[in-house]
Amino acid sequence: MAKDLCRLVYRSESRIDHNDDAGLDGIFRISVKNNLRDRITGALALPDGKFVQVVEGARRDVEALMVRIRADDRHFNVAVLGDWAITARLFEGWAMARPDPEPLSRQAFRIVTEDGSGVQVTGILLGMVQTPATAWL
């Protein structure tokens, strides 16, 4: 366990059409590659023209990731919903889980896309992913 482990949750507005499967798949593939390299875990959901992401890792790695995310012109209005120190990862084994937000209730969907806190969003995304077959950490 790293003593500087943290979890950060953000939401942003996508400039990529939500029907652009190739563009969104490209983002996901690059995220997995970079997160494996940087030992970052988490989940990325793409509901209703938004990016909603939970990232976990060493503080310096998460901060470096956020610099890249804020500079990425494929989205705008990046809003951090929560950023806190943690002692263990919730998304252990997931370089980047990609939960499908379609089955969410209307209330859960609103929490994820509009007005939820970082803790609320993390809980919903965690509930949407299955345990990975093998952990990489």
Structure description:
Strands 2-3-1-4 form a four-stranded antiparallel β-sheet, with helices on both faces. Residues 132-137 have low confidence and may be disordered. It is α+β, with helices and mostly antiparallel strands and 137 residues long. It has helices spanning 21-38, 59-71, 106-115, 118-128; strands spanning 5-14, 41-45, 50-58, 75-85. 38% of the residues lie in helices and 26% in strands. It has a single domain (5-128), classed as Alpha-Beta Plaits, CATH 3.30.70.
Offer a quick outline of the entry.
With 137 residues, this protein is α+β, with helices and mostly antiparallel strands. The protein has a single domain, classed as Alpha-Beta Plaits (2-Layer Sandwich), CATH 3.30.70.100. It has helices at 21-38, 59-71, 106-115, 118-128, and strands spanning 5-14, 41-45, 50-58, 75-85.
CATH class, named Alpha Beta
Q: Going across the biggest sheet, name each strand in turn.
A: 2-3-1-4
The strand count comes to 4
Distance between the termini: 10 Å
Rg, please? 14 Å
Shape verdict: globular
Question: Which sheet architecture does the biggest sheet show?
Answer: 4 strands, antiparallel
Question: Which blocks of ≥5 consecutive residues have pLDDT under 50?
Answer: 132-137
Helix/strand/pairing class, anyone? alpha+beta
Percentage of residues in helical conformation: 25-40%
Q: Beta fraction of the residues?
A: 25-35%
What CATH calls the topology is Alpha-Beta Plaits
| Oligomer kind | single chain
Q: How many domains make up the coordinates?
A: 1
How confident overall, as mean pLDDT? 85
